[in-house]
Amino acid sequence: MLVKLENPSVLGKAVEIISELVTEVRIKINEHGLSITAIDPANVAMVGFKIPKTAFTQFEAGNEVLGVNLDNLKSILKRAGNSSSIILESKENVLNIQILDRIKRNFSLMLIEIESEDKQMPMLEYAAKVELGSVDFQASIEDCAVVSDACSFVVSDGKFIIEARGLNSARAEFSGDEAQIDAENCRARYSLEYLSKFLKGVKMSEKTKLNFASEHPLRIDVRSEHMELSFILAPRVETED
Question: What pLDDT is stored for residue 241 in this prediction?
Answer without folding.
Answer: 44
